[in-house]
What we know:
heterodimer; A: alpha/beta; TIM Barrel; eight-stranded parallel beta barrel; two-stranded antiparallel ribbon; 13 helices; 10 strands; 13% strand; B: alpha/beta; 45% helix
Amino acid sequence: MQASLSSRPNIACRSQFAAGAAATSKRSRCSSVVVAGLATEKDNPFAEELKANAKHISRRGRGILASDESNATTGKRLETIGVDNTEDNRRDWRQLLYTAPDLGNYISGAIMFEETLYQKSREGVQFVDLLKEQGILPGIKVDTGLQVLPGTDGETTTQGLDNLGARCEAYYKQGARFAKWRAVLKISEGEGPSSQAILENAHGLARYAQIAQQNGLVPIVEPEVTLGPGAYSIEETAYWSERVYSHVMRLLNEYDVLLEGILLKPNMCLPGLDAPSASPAEVAKYTVRTMMRTIPPSVPGIHFLSGGMSEEESTLNLQALQDACPNSPWSLTFSYGRALQSATLKTWQGKEENWGKAQAILTALAKANSEAQLGQYKGPHPAPGGGRILQALRFGGAGK
Amino acid sequence: MSLELIETAKYLSAPGKGLLASDESTGTIGKRLEKAGFENTEEARRSYRELFYTAPIGEAGISGAILFKETLGQQAADGTLFVECLQRQGVLAGIKVDEGLVPLDGCPGETSTRGLATLEAACRGYVAQGAKFAKWRAALKVGGGCPTEQCIETNAQQLAEYAAVCQACGLVPIVEPELLIDGNHDQAAFADASTRVITRCIAHLQRKGVVLEATLIKPQMIIPGADYTGPKADPSEVAQHTLAVMRQCVPAAIPGIMFLSGGQTEEEATINLNRINQEAQQSGGCPWSLSFSFGRSLQASVLKLWSEDQGEASKARCREMAAALAHANSRAVLGKFEGLHPSITSQQGSLRETFRGWRTDV
């Protein structure tokens, strides 16, 4: 199915004029788009800070810990180890993560859910302060979840634009310095995402990115082309990923988003769930090609998500990316959730006596991926032999 | 075929290499020759171009020369085809395939470019004559409400269509969205317009499935308008603004950004290109070559010498000048241009012309 992306009529058309340019006396039907894009950098007082933070998060040997599961999702995880979904338990779990010794050597940013951003440790220390002590920048998930697009085959849009500016401002005050918004595009057997889904999700991402930057938060732009059922090839994933990312990048530019102040969180290119899995070299080849074709060099960091890969694959594939792109213009690194948390959670089992061991596993996993980012990972993997990490799409807004 | 095209694109944009744009249409080159005191005859055009193609421009750093279709079939005085003269010194032959500018309906002063209807047949013919790459020029005005949305969209679509057809026929497309130097806009306004135009062009290339690894782009450096009344932009400012825009818009897969000289003097063009590359190196490098596809900036001094004397000794001097100009810009691509510029026309100021691009002699 060919997605024909006829452009939306003038969504980006604003009739503002650059200072000094003569205004046309007759308004023609070809409206002009003469807003100074690079003037945004001069207009935004956060511009230098955004650039510095984005660079800092994406620096070599570092990646992001994605720990922003909603309360409902966190509950499901805690359930697997027999722990009740209470605020205290959620707090304990995140405290375990954020106080893991030496985590800051490998992790440059941690994405949080709103509840967590405002939580304190058992000892009464703000989580944002604990993270800062580790040299880890606090981030915040700002989308409010997926909604099904009517008339599509289960495709989704992401919600959360309403009141986003005010929320970002408050999060910044609390100590957050970057944000995250996850858009999901589906591929399944023989079909890519519809043009409606691509347009809708790209627009949401670009608007979110604009608003986040206006309020001092580096936006992680996450257009996830999610792994789906079917035996479709890795080339197909690459093809659809290219379509999606190129449209996202186009809108980011049209909406005057400062690319040096964003981070990208894409999927690696993988074949369909029912196709034989690809080697790290193959994954790297198609992933790198897709990034080269769609992402301009001013984006400082590309932080891949781990969905669809096992913990070990997440590390091996990350390393293969470095081999496949030795002089990459952007950092090729990670923003991993379950690839860092799964084994940690299993080790903890909710028991006090396992706290230290669980933290050690987390740090070991972070270290392995940090080494992979540097192309220096040697193994053995701290969590070998795991199955693919898959996530069913949840609709209906973020759980409270 | 795709792999061959990718190799060609890489060859054209190899380190220290750039392009000679000598594809002026009969009308345009005619006006230039007439200004220099010549009659616009086929022989005048042929003998002028011969100076370049028989000069040692290959070893001076030229990897490709863009020709006009008349020139593609012409020969040197000794009967050697120009394409052959070029090939012998490792210079690939390129061909201008657009058929000139036409006014754009509903957008006064703005243009689109002709040539899509006959493009495929034309390309196959050019390939048979030895062409390896092609060029299509869109021209966009800046200022006074321009470029309009329709202008950007139409030209970007045409460029993408052209690029796709070229690749299907075995030619590497050079995509040229020229934002004109005409106007009194400042550098920031030019940067904004360039960002919008280049972003749109890239988006359409991607939608058309054009192989970016086998595509070159030919934009203008980010400079203020020719009639801007403020202070002139120094090379450092040109470099910073140009790099910022390119880094914001151009995906890493494109192997070369071949800047046009569009009205800058020979010396300005070289110095700006040099500074762009120096600043690029000093700020972490760039994934594409930052190179040149210069017309007037590689030719003006040659034409001056030629207009003064068409004897044998002068021919030799003209060839030397052609090679010297090429060499200066080749050094600039490496960020290593220094010393005296060979130009003898830079004192005369801008090489801006107002008659470029409008073809009535198709």
